[in-house]
Amino acid sequence: MPDGDDDKRGDTERQDGESTLTVLVALGANLGIGLLKLVAGILTGSAAMFAEAAHSAADTATEGLLLTALHRSGRKADRRHPFGYGKERFFWSLIAAVSIFVSGAVFAIIEGVRVMFGGEAEQTLPVVAYLVLALSFVLEAASLSRAVRQIRAEARAEGQSMRVWLRTTDDPTVTSVFYEDTAALIGLLLAFAGVGLHQFTGSAFWDGLASLLIGVLLSGVAYVLGRTNLGLLVGRQADRRLVLAVRDRLAARPEVEQVVDLLTMMTGTDRVLVCARLDFCDALTAADLERTCVDIDEQLRAEFSDLDEIFLEPVPRNDPRMRARVLERYGSGAEGWGRAG
Q1: Which residue ranges run through the membrane (predicted)?
Q2: Residue 285 belongs to what domain range?
């Protein structure tokens, strides 16, 4: 068991190290890009460039919050927080999503509307904007490639596609960087189009429209990230493959007649709480039951490294109140829940 715990800690530390590096790369890129965009916005008077500067400022603030999430979620469990601080990663990632909306999207939308309906605005030195946008695209692409490499590696390790991994992962820091950088590249293209159309037509409307669309884009990213982290904070079930595998192991134990109920909850990245209600064989003595529970705990921890806390509760499978609670939660699918296969 100690070796298994050491392996789990090692895997968690490696994954956290990869996530930290991914966030740091994005932080450095966005900080430099943001300053360049701000200077370009001042020199050119482009609303799209100012919107992009706000976009980068939001992303920089987000990366700072994600670093906070990585640091604080790694603290050990204590008396006040017996299940650890893993959910702080979800909380700070949620705050990061709010930051994207408040500091980026709102500014970009207001600036876009102001320029679109506030009359013509003179554009100066558009070549500066083009150069800054091109350099920003290269830096954002480098940051995105780092996030994509990590996502592909982790998805491959879990036998999933990138799309499925992004939808089901419990590590919001990497997904935040991925969505931010993807939105940043799209935003740069919108800004390029806005500056170009302004120069070509002489109308600031297109510049303002680009700013507005960048704001809408940021709102969409903030919504996706906020919804994901909300689900994790509320208490999302563990990966279904893990739940079914744990169910099968419990049902295969000779001392267990039926798995009456199995509850799981993500308590952090790669941390799962399990509560299993089991109908044990009536022939077991109290001492046998105690030893069996210890054996089951050790077996599950040895096989499933994500299991952080395991609770086993002996219950009769024919108890009407327990059966009603299980059927209310799972519906008719609860029939035969405890049988493997």
Answers
A1: 20-40, 90-110, 130-148, 177-198, 204-226
A2: 240-334
Is 196 a domain residue? yes
Total domains in the fold of the chain: 2
- Check whether residue 276 and residue 190 sit in a common domain: no
Predicted local distance difference test score (pLDDT) of residue 14: 62
83 and 26 in a common domain: yes
Distance CA 154, CA 16 (A): 12
Residue 42: CA count within 13 A, CB half-sphere? 5
Answer whether 56's CB lies under 8 Å from 30's CB: yes
Closest to 63 measured CA to CA, from 40, 83, 92, 87: 92
Per-residue pLDDT reduced to its tens digit, 219-258: 998 898 888 888 888 888 999 999 999 999 999 999 999 9
Measured distance CA(187)–CA(214) in Å, rounded: 6
CA atoms within 13 Å, Cβ hemisphere of 81: 13
pTM to 2 decimals? 0.79
Query: For residue 9, what are its two tokens?
Result: 């800690």
